[in-house]
Write a sequence for this structure.
């Protein structure tokens, strides 16, 4: 019994490191080594980008993620926003060299962060706090970075798949899910079409109560026979055979966009 | 109180200097002013409007040969005059103008067989007075630009010290101290050199060679962080390394290229830098991968505006800086007069 208890007392904190710069990852590794006596920890993986990080997490769950903000492909903050789709997301500690606006947002929303060059004292304190403290909700991370994401995250049986917004043809609401259609695939995500419309207003346009279409892919319109779904016209989209009906309510707006 | 603070930005730490008689902008201003003076004299002397043209012609008949001879002599003597110091240079420039005006007028008079000594003396005195007036104008003008230069330097400083770069570099050095102390030492030395140049209070032109060395030190530091993702291709004409350029002409552009062209890319990217000569022009070209989605990042325009301003202050209309997007690459091209370092 005693030995079991002791073992559980020293169950190390599982840590994931996400930073695009190899020396920055090496520095975090050194510091985690240094503070192991204070805060038992084990590094479950190192990723050079947010996408790699999500891949790693699928097979190596972590309790804490140390995440650089300034990374190519996907910012650290967007990575954290996607993480929140996991059943048990790791606690996120951001690491940044200098990003005044992000730091202000972290302060306001009580999100943990470390400044580069990272000090060993600070990392131990942050790990302790992350291990004990409550998890922050997704809405906190959305508030920290209100910019539109560059990917949509799809949770398929615990594994996150990221779909680049640039590949999305259209989004269609069906009951409690939204169908994400790309050239090759179809995904289901749990989201509200209204929220997606607000977030991606620059990329997507609403053509129907239940449908958003990629603006730049609209190739033309086709007159519909009869009265389908309160619509007289359908949108033709590049790379897609389907005809998506435009509701009479949205018609004027969609036509204006097509002209411009 | 405001006046008390001003001198702390040392703007009068350099004595006055003669204008650069080889600069197109200076030459154009002299031509314009002398001809304007000739026109003013014609207006005064003309009794009727119809006479203005003929009066102007009569005056310029005497003025232009002296003007062009003086400009040619000053062009040739430019380097020597600059070395003399302001007072002596000023006197010599006036002496050159006086001598050449007298010489040209004498030759012209002899050709026309009507040598008029009193008229010639008045002409020489007028030419010297006008020359002195113009030198004074150039002195006042450069004084007026002095605070602008100080201001531009301060702005440059702010634009250059990108905290993002400093803290990331320090972090990278900390990371390698244990495993590669030698490389860590080199990195700290590079960082120290870089900051010494950043903080240097110097308006003098420097040889391109030094600016290139500085860029290489900067790129060493970025290599430490970015590894293989950062590739740099230099193409340098050895003769162009002797060109005199404003300090920090290239480094801020290289830093921008890394920040906007390499860091946002997942794959490796290349920065290309070309430094060459085209006759008496120094040409500098720089290109990096273009990431349209990262254009909201600030800082690029500020560095460009600052370099453009300093080029204008140093080379007037003879320098230019163009930028453009060419397919997948962002390009900057600069051209300025080639002045060889002594």
């Amino acid at each position: 019994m005693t030995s079991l208890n002791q073992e559980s007392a020293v169950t190390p904190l599982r840590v994931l490191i996400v930073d695009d710069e190899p020396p920055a990852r090496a520095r975090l590794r050194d510091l985690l080594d240094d503070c192991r006596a204070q805060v038992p920890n084990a590094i479950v993986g190192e990723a050079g980008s947010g996408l790699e990080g999500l891949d790693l997490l699928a097979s190596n769950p972590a309790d804490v993620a140390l995440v650089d903000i300034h990374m190519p492909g996907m910012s650290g903050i967007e990575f954290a926003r996607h993480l929140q789709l996991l059943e048990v997301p790791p606690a996120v500690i951001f690491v940044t060299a200098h990003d005044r606006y992000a730091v202000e947002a972290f302060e306001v929303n009580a999100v943990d962060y470390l400044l580069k060059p990272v000090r060993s004292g600070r990392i131990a304190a942050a790990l302790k706090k992350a291990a004990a403290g409550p998890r922050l909700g997704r809405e906190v991370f959305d508030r920290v970075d209100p910019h539109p994401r560059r990917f949509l995250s799809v949770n398929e049986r615990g594994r996150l798949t990221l779909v680049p917004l640039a590949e999305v043809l259209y989004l269609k609401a069906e009951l409690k899910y939204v169908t994400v259609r790309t050239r090759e695939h179809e995904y289901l995500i749990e989201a509200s079409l209204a929220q997606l419309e607000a977030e991606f207003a620059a990329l997507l346009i609403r053509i129907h109560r239940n449908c958003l279409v990629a603006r730049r892919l609209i190739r033309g319109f086709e007159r519909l026979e009869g009265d389908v779904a309160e619509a007289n016209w359908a949108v033709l989209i590049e790379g897609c055979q389907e005809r998506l009906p435009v509701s009479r309510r949205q018609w004027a707006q969609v036509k204006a966009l097509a002209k411009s | 109180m405001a006046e008390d603070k001003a001198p702390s930005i040392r703007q009068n730490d350099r004595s006055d200097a003669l204008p650069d008689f080889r600069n197109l902008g200076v030459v154009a201003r002299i031509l314009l002013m002398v001809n304007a003076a000739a026109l003013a004299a014609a207006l005064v002397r003309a009794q009727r409007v119809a006479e203005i043209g003929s009066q102007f012609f009569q005056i310029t008949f005497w003025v232009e040969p002296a003007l062009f001879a003086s400009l040619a002599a000053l062009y040739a003597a430019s380097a020597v005059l600059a070395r003399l110091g302001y007072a002596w240079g000023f006197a010599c420039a006036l002496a050159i103008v006086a001598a050449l005006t007298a010489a040209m007028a004498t030759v012209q008079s002899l050709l026309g067989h009507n040598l008029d000594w009193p008229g010639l003396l008045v002409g020489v005195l007028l030419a010297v007075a006008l020359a002195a007036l113009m030198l004074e104008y150039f002195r006042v003008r450069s004084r007026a630009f002095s605070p602008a230069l100080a201001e531009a330097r301060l702005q440059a400083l702010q634009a250059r010290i990108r905290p993002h770069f400093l803290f990331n570099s320090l972090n990278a050095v900390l990371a390698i101290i244990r495993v590669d102390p030698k490389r860590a030492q080199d990195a700290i030395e590079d960082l120290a050199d870089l900051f010494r140049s950043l903080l240097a209070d110097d308006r003098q032109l420097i040889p391109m060679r030094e600016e290139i060395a500085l860029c290489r030190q900067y790129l060493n530091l970025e290599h430490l962080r970015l590894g293989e993702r950062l590739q740099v291709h230099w193409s340098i004409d050895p003769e162009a390394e002797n060109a005199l350029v404003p300090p920090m002409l290239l480094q801020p552009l290289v830093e921008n290229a890394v920040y906007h062209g390499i860091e946002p890319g997942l794959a490796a990217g290349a920065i290309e830098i070309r430094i060459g000569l085209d006759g008496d022009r120094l040409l500098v070209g720089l290109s990096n991968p273009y990431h349209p989605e990262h254009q909201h990042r600030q800082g690029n325009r500020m560095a460009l505006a600052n370099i453009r301003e300093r080029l204008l202050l140093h080379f007037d209309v003879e320098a230019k800086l163009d930028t453009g997007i060419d397919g997948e690459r962002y390009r900057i091209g600069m051209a300025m007069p080639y002045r060889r370092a002594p």
In short: The beta strands of chain B are 206-207, 230-236, 244-245, 269-278, 281-289, 320-326, 329-337. The longest helix of chain B spans residues 117-160. Confidence is low (pLDDT under 50) at residues 1-13 of chain B.
